[in-house]
Amino acid sequence: MNSLTKKRCWTVAVALIFAVGAGAVAQAQQASGTAVSKAPETMAVDGRITAALQQISAERIRANIEKLVSFGTRSTISAQDPAAIGAGRGVGAAREWIKSEFERYSKDCGGCLEVKSDTFTEPAADRIPQPTEITNVYAVLKGSDAENAKRIVLVTGHYDSRNNDILDTKGDAPGANDDGSGTAVSLECARVLSKLKFPATIIFLTVAGEEQGLNGSHHFAKMAKEQGWDIEAGLNNDIVGGDKSAEQDHSVVRVFSEGMPVAEVEARRLRGLGGENDSTSRQLARYIADVGRAYDAGVKPMLVFRLDRYLRGGDHYAFNGEGFAAVRFTEFREDFHHQHQNVRTESGIEYGDLARFVDFDYVAHVARLNAATLASLASGPAPPANVHLVAKDLENDSTLTWENSPGGMASGYEVLWRATTSPEWEHAEKVGNVTRTTLKLSKDNVIFAVRAVDAQGHRSLPVVPVPER
Ligand SMILES: [Zn+2]
After folding, report:
1. Which residues surround ligand 1, an ion (CB under 5 A)?
2. I need a labelling partner for 69 at 20 to 30 A (CA). Which of 126, 150, 175, 283 fits?
3. What's the rounded Cα separation, in Å, for the pair 236 and 185?
4. Which residues of 301-325 are buried (b: 16+ CB within 10 A; e: fewer)?
């Protein structure tokens, strides 16, 4: 230990001794900023987005979910040969219909959507008896700004379904809620948002292979990573049907986000910073909470700070694994009689994932929350780059530096902070169109982030700084 380090240790020790005094509470309040700043305002409402949300139709969603159910089964290992497609039964027929639906929306917006298929052969595995062709179907609404079009926000649902037996290729597996509802959210967001233009790109994705082992999303996320796509946010909707059971709360939708990232590099970085609650997926979840306060979607996001429900998984995990921010939307209370079940009645209980258990108004509300999030992110500037916290000197002020939001849309920046024990951002300070600022707050007592804002008030996702020595 050199003398300088020794002196620093002593200083910290003395500071601790004095802090355990009468002034400690006041000092802590000062440090978390409760005494010096106000709570952050809700994001500005964009009238164009509000108008788009009104176009989202529960009736359309009902028709789409019923159409998906009409394919009998959408098991990933069900038939997809031309005869089955012609007969309208199986995963192949469902896939062709989804494609035709995206193409129809594209026709209505003068060809604004690029409708694509991502087809690959999944090798045999536990839940895949023989090598099986799997197809993800998606529509791309390319960003209108050359630089910002590289930025991507994405909404996804899985169109495959299952019943009791994961290897059943023939029996009915209606999958109205799981995940006809999420597929319908992707479709309806595509129909409505394709009527607008956004600087950044939006992808409306529907995947298969989820029930077999997240095969479709794994393939898609890996492809995105390999091709260097800049996916800022992934919204996975899985079981958002608002099952009409007595204890359902139709006013909320759960938003699950990972804490420590499954992507190792990111996890190591956060662990060293006390950033266990600050993965990029969690910033996305907080952004959705912000959107939920600004726009009246008809449903409020309820943030759940865990990757997923106990022992369950979903497609957002595949994106997280490649280092992308992604969250999962799921109804407040699931009815397990209506998931992964053969359609039947036993002891007076109706089993099976049928369309009549789905609350189509609820799905429309969830679609509005998704659309508002996609539109806000795609309208707004890119997050600031290389956000750093200057930590080479021991001092009680905090200096943050960053590089301009790429793409030139930002008109200014805001520094956010919250107590280390708080779930959401508590304070925001507009610092102008600068790339460096110093706040009279101790970096050791709060968590900081920086976000970019444009002239209309659209916000980027916030970025938590890394310390700079
Ligand atoms: Zn599902």
Report:
1. 178-179, 238
2. 126
3. 10
4. bebbeebbeeeeebbbbbbbbbbbb
